[in-house]
Every structure is written in structure tokens, then in C-alpha cells.
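Running low. Invent one:
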Amino acid sequence: MDEKHKQNLRPEDMTKKGHEKFIHYADGESLSEINNSVDVPENAGFWKTLLAYSGPGALVAVGYMDPGNWVTSITGGASYKYALLSVILISSLIAMLLQAMSARVGMVTGKDLAQLTRDHTNKAGGFVLWIITELAIMATDIAEIIGSGIALMLLFHIPLVAGIFITAFDVFLLLLLMKLGFRKIEAIVATLVAVILFVFLYQVILAKPNVGEMFAGFVPHTDIITNKGMLYLALGIVGATVMPHNLYLHSSIAQARKYDRNDPKKLRKALKFTVIDSNIQLSIAFVVNCLLLVLGAALFYGHASNLGRFQDLYFALQNKDIAGSIASLCSPCCSPLPCWHPVRIQPSPGLFQVKS
């Protein structure tokens, strides 16, 4: 146990022999392993200072580009063309506001949202909220882990169970890399976000969408409310875009930068650059989600395609009659890794039927 961690423990959190108890109240620094650990320049220029504060926004933004967003956005484009782009825009603006607020409250109070919630509830209420939060985390992780397992199965024919274990292992690997420094994790995630952005941008360029109709889709219209199918997908996009667990995360990791917390001027500067970083990264997430919907509209609109499952989207992207030149990019033969034993997966019936 390092000295900094010992200082954050209360006497009742220690055993008589001086060892840390297995269970104790986490009322010290939020994520003490990284809190106040990343150096920032004192008198550097705007861009160098922004670079020093960049990173937490990327960790937050990656949560806005999960598989749930991909399927929902592409299905929205395939079903209603560009009409739901306005929903992505409004959802992203709401997300930017909420993320900025959560980061600011964490930096000003020195506590994350979980700690602040506990401070304003009694013991019973805090326990109930903790159970609900744990269940929500498990529900979220199940979707992510199984989704990644399905992706590995589709791309490399790795059995689903093996793919799930690989996915779980890489999570622990990333946590292990935190020992090398929090900036390393930020750099890895930022690189992955950049790869996602350029891959989908390249695919949209190949799909050749109607630019005029695309920009018109950012203007909200009443059909989104009156059309039940469109409203259902719009709610799905909002649910997949605004991520409550990211609010808790941001309120904590925003405190990773090292500066004088008692100096109001330096605090205002840290708040300014943290919010700028958050807005830049969430703007990238907004562009990615728009690209997904545009890709769905340009490739699949006009086909009675049930794209609610990963495998259906996978088979649709492999169909040259629909995806054109993009189909070759999604072919299994392009896989750089050897395939395991074949896994038989069939598309949904009527996936490629054209609407009359």
C-alpha cells in the first residue's frame, strides 16, 4: 500500500495490525490511483495546454460510440433515411451539457457523482442506490461483452464463448496498463476513437450519400413525434447517445490533472480546458453517429432490411447488390487473422427484399 493511499484511509478502515480492511467507505479522493497525477504546464500556450488537458474527453466519448449506437443509428438510416439526424444532433448537445456539468461538479467539489450522491442520502438509501447501480453496470457490460464476442465470431469465426473470454481479458489488460500511467490509457482510447472515425468516414465517402438531403435531416420535423416507428427509433437513439454512467466517470477522471486546487484562477483555467476537451471529443462522437446513420441511409434505405441484429448488418454489408464497393471491405477473406472452425450464422428471412 503506498503512502498516498494510506493517507486517504480513516482509522476505522484499518485493522489493529495496521492492514487495510477489505470493505470500507470510499470517502477519500475519487480514483486515488490517478487523482491529481497528470502534470499540466503552468505558462504554456493555448494548444499545448489543451493537449495536456485532452484525454478524459476521449474516455467519455468512446461510450457514445458503442455497438448499441451503431445498430440503432444504421437502422434509423435504413428505415427513415436522413430524418433522424436531428435527433442525434439534439441528443449530442444534451450530452455535451450534461458531461460538462458533471466534470465541473467533480473538479469544484473534489468528489465524483457517486460520492456526492452518498453524501446526500442516508445509509439505507445509499445501499439501495448502490445495488441498482451495480445491476445497471452488469446489464450494460453484458451487452458490450456479448456484442464484442459476436463481432469476433462474425469476423474471425472464433466461437462465441472464446470471444467473450477474449473481450473480458482485454478489459483487465487495459486496467493493468494503468500501472504505466493514466496518459497511456487516454492515448490508446484516443487512437481507437480516431480509427473508428476514419473507417466510417471512408465508408460514407464510398457510399456517396445525397449531401443536400443529409443536411436537411438536421432540421427537426413533426414526423418524428407523430410517426410511431420513427418515434420508437428516436427514443432508441436518445437512449444509446445519452449515457448516465459516463457522467459518473467524467466527474472522477476530470480530477486527474495536477494543479493547485485552492487557487481560483487555476481552477477556472482547468475547468475551461476540461470542458473544451469534452466538447471536442463529444463532437467527434456526434460525427461518428451521424456517419453511421448516413451509411445506413445511403446503403440500405429502400430495402426491407431487419438490421436490428449484428449478424443481419454484417450480411447486409457483404451483399454487393446493396453495399457495392463497401462489400469487399467487409468480406471475411480480408481478415488478417486465420479463422477458427466455421460458425454457421444465417441472415434473417427477407433481409434483402426490396420494398414495393
